[in-house]
């Protein structure tokens, strides 16, 4: 088992601590005294490096460290009596008497970047790999290839060390030794300054940001560190505090005062009242951007977590005083110092593994996120990007839960999600690395307002409300035991569809859903369902089946799709129902109480009951005219031996009259009178002393059709002489 794994498996201190219990003194591994023998050693750790590296300032030598075997191996030596060193990422830069060299720790290759003719006092490299070279009275800035970009001569105090570079503002932070007059005495002070290079102009300000320590504490190295491109942390022996200020609060042109926030006061118990060459050195702190907290050594073998206001959250014990603390391989590497000896310990910060997320389901107002569980996690934190910023939206306090439904979302809207597992240490949720990012779009809203907008015996019209979240609509019908698409509408402004070729008086099931295209993928809203029954078939064979002077009879064919029939008459300028026939077998209806020789309008439609709702076929229309009235007052108005005269009353409903005589076993027309004012007719050529049967009926012309009244009969006998 590796040393790191061995230490990581040590028991936790308790539920109130934010960090696991680190190893006891017996688990702190003694480091090679040949490496750690001198004024101080630089500890190098970077995500791009495989392992830890130590640079011994006195030997000018770089060592790699194998934590499994606890072996330090020499990999690079700077062959110069007093080089100036700067480490960034996986590069080590040295300013020597003849030039500046870059050593790539990963590839173990050394490259001379530029030649110099003056003795360097400090070297630094910014995040663009531009080289800052300070000499006693000038600052030179070179490109990564060694081309001089800009230089500035200055008369102030010499730049002794570079502490870091802020790529967002162009600021750089450096150390000078200043003269501080106090109570009439001169005191040499290590001071922190800020400069600026905007790509064209170098600015150096004589005013310092703050004092770091007095001359007799000069052994104390690495007093300043930039964290997360946000804060400048400093460990001041002058004020005995660990404090910080915000990078964005510093203007290199106007250095007056800066707003300092204290993290903790030093007690100096490890230094026994003074900072000697044997004391633990430098910042000995790391910043956690996920929790916005600081893990800092506070003396007395105490390693504590603080928030950015200096409030202590939790504490764990270390084996010995911490000499240097760096982030390493998901935890923290601690180089500890006890007397002349140096030790290595690893603090597992409890960072769980990353999970993988995927889309688990969609709705118009929700998205479901699924993920792979992380056995060592206590739970999970889900984030969504809101206004361009990753924001926590859910905390799942169960490591076995592998799904979460994000609700309250907008339809047809794309959302980004990512997730991390976390482990609980005291009141702190230590986050693991974030998962992959998924971008998913919600479904469009469900179609609303779906209704039957119209019916016919062979068709049904569907209507619905506009869906702004959709590109269009899909319409399906239930046919033959399954749902079948019958229409795709590609415009969300189209809000109606007529389903044709249906059967009369038949119930049909329909459903509609909205869709939205995301690239080539269609996202669908939930179905809205509706049932609609077609109207019965229209009436056929409607005709006038009989007439009278006061009545008309309507006949029609049987409608097998109907429950019955509705008959209406046009009366007084409007259609009025005159009959409801509740059996589809009844195929005739007599309208009585009418006026003679009068034309009437009728219409008939079938109906079918669906529950309590009546569905109607289209109207079949017909017009019918009644017969004229029967002729009244018919009598024998005169006789002769060869003739008879008929008389009758005037019929105002008639156009004229038809007169018939019964002869030879049948009725024979003898006259058609075309004027209803003619009220008499003489039948001549008769036989004397003979009785004759006569009849008369009125008629009325409707177009070319004659309508007749019933007959009025009379008998008359001619004279014998």
Polypeptide structure, described:
Strands 14, 15, 16, 17 and 18 form a five-stranded antiparallel sheet that branches. This protein has one helix and 61 strands. Residues 1-26 have low confidence and may be disordered. It has 721 residues and is mainly beta.
**How much β-strand is present in the residues?**
over 45%
Structural class: mainly beta
Low-confidence stretches: 1-26
Helical content stands at: under 10%
- Number of helical regions: 1
* Mean pLDDT across all amino acids: 89
Number of strands: 61
Terminal Cα span: 160 Å
| Rounded Rg | 55 Å
Described by the principal axes of the CA atoms, the overall outline is rod-shaped
Major sheet attributes:
5 strands, antiparallel
List keywords for this structure.
61 strands
Brief synopsis:
The chain is mainly β and 721 residues long. Helices cover 1% and strands 53% of the residues. Strands 14, 15, 16, 17 and 18 form a 5-stranded antiparallel beta sheet that branches. Strands 32, 33, 35, 36 and 37 form a 5-stranded antiparallel beta sheet that branches. Strands 40, 41, 43, 44 and 45 form a 5-stranded antiparallel beta sheet that branches.
How would the blueprint of this fold be written?
Elements: H1 3-8, E1 29-30, E2 41-44, E3 52-56, E4 61-66, E5 71-77, E6 84-88, E7 91-95, E8 99-104, E9 109-115, E10 120-125, E11 131-135, E12 138-142, E13 148-153, E14 159-166, E15 171-182, E16 185-197, E17 202-204, E18 210-214, E19 224-227, E20 231-236, E21 241-246, E22 261-265, E23 285-288, E24 293-297, E25 302-307, E26 312-317, E27 322-328, E28 331-338, E29 341-347, E30 357-362, E31 367-371, E32 379-386, E33 389-396, E34 403-406, E35 414-425, E36 428-431, E37 438-441, E38 451-456, E39 459-463, E40 472-479, E41 482-489, E42 496-499, E43 507-518, E44 521-524, E45 528-533, E46 543-547, E47 552-555, E48 564-571, E49 574-581, E50 588-591, E51 599-610, E52 613-616, E53 620-625, E54 635-640, E55 643-647, E56 656-663, E57 666-673, E58 680-683, E59 691-702, E60 705-708, E61 712-717
Antiparallel strand pairs: 1-29, 2-3, 3-4, 4-5, 6-7, 7-8, 8-9, 10-11, 11-12, 12-13, 14-15, 15-16, 16-17, 16-18, 19-20, 20-21, 21-22, 23-24, 24-25, 25-26, 27-28, 28-29, 30-31, 31-34, 32-33, 32-35, 35-36, 35-37, 38-39, 39-42, 40-41, 40-43, 43-44, 43-45, 46-47, 47-50, 48-49, 48-51, 51-52, 51-53, ...
């Amino acid at each position: 088992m590796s040393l790191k794994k061995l230490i990581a498996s040590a028991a936790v201190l308790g539920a109130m601590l934010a960090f696991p219990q680190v190893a006891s003194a017996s688990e702190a591994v003694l480091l090679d005294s040949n490496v750690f023998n001198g004024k101080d050693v630089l500890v190098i750790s970077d995500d791009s490096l495989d392992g830890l590296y130590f640079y011994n300032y006195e030997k000018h030598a770089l060592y790699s460290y194998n934590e499994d075997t606890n072996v330090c191996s020499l990999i690079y030596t700077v062959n110069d009596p007093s080089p100036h060193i700067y480490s960034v990422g996986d590069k080590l830069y040295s300013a020597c008497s003849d030039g500046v060299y870059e050593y790539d720790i990963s590839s173990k290759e050394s490259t001379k970047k530029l030649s110099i003719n003056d003795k360097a006092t400090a070297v630094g490299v910014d995040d663009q790999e531009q080289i800052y070279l300070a000499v006693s009275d000038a600052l030179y800035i070179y490109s990564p290839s060694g081309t001089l970009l800009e230089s500035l001569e200055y008369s102030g105090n010499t730049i002794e060390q570079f502490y870091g570079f802020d790529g967002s503002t162009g600021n750089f932070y450096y150390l000078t030794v200043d003269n501080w007059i106090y109570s009439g005495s001169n005191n040499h002070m290590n001071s922190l300054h800020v400069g600026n290079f905007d790509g064209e102009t170098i600015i150096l300000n004589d005013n310092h940001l703050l004092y770091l320590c007095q001359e007799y504490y000069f052994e104390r190295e690495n007093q300043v560190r930039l964290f997360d491109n946000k804060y400048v942390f400093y460990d001041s022996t002058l004020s005995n505090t660990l404090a910080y200020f915000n990078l964005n609060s510093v203007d290199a042109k106007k250095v007056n005062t800066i707003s300092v926030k204290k993290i903790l006061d030093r007690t100096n118990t490890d230094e026994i009242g003074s900072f000697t060459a044997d004391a633990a050195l430098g910042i000995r702190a790391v910043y956690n951007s996920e929790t916005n907290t600081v893990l800092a050594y506070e003396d007395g073998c105490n390693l504590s977590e603080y928030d950015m206001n200096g409030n202590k959250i939790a504490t764990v014990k270390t084996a010995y005083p911490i000499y240097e603390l760096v982030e390493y391989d998901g935890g923290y590497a601690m180089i500890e110092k006890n007397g002349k000896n140096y030790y290595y310990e690893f603090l597992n910060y409890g960072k769980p593994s990353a999970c993988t997320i995927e889309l688990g389901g969609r709705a118009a107002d929700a998205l479901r996120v699924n993920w792979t569980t992380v056995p060592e996690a206590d739970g999970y934190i889900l984030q969504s990007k809101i206004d361009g910023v990753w924001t926590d939206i859910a905390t799942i306090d169960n490591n076995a839960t592998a799904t979460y439904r994000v609700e309250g979302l907008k339809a047809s809207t794309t959302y980004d999600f990512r997730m991390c597992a976390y482990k609980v240490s005291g009141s702190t949720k230590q986050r693991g690395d974030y998962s992959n990012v998924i971008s998913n779009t919600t479904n469009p809203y469900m179609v609303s307002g779906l209704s039957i907008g119209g019916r016919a015996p062979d068709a049904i019209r569907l209507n619905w409300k506009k869906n702004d979240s959709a590109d269009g609509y899909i319409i399906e019908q239930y046919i033959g035991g399954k749902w079948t698409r019958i229409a795709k509408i590609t415009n969300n402004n189209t809000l109606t569809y007529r389903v044709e070729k249906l059967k009369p008086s038949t119930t049909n099931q329909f459903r509609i859903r909205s869709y939205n295209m995301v690239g080539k993928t269609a996202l669908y809203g939930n179905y809205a369902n509706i049932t609609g029954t077609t109207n019965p078939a229209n009436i056929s064979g409607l005709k006038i089946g009989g007439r009278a002077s006061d009545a008309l009879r309507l006949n029609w064919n049987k409608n097998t799709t109907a429950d019955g029939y509705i008959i209406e008459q046009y009366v007084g300028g409007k259609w009025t129902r005159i009959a409801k026939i509740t059996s589809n077998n009844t195929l005739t209806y007599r309208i009585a109480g009418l006026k003679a020789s009068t034309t009437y309008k009728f219409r008939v439609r079938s109906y079918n009951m669906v529950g309590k709702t009546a569905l109607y076929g289209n109207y079949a229309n017909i017009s019918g005219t009644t017969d004229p009235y029967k002729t009244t007052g018919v009598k024998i108005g005169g006789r002769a031996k060869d003739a008879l005269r008929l008389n009758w009353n005037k019929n105002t409903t008639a156009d004229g009259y038809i007169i018939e005589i019964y002869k030879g076993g049948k009725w024979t027309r003898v006259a058609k009178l075309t004027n209803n004012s003619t009220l008499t007719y003489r039948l001549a050529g008769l036989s004397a002393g003979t009785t004759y049967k006569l009849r008369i009926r009125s008629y009325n012309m409707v177009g070319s059709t004659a309508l007749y009244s019933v007959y009025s009969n009379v008998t008359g006998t001619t004279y014998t002489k």
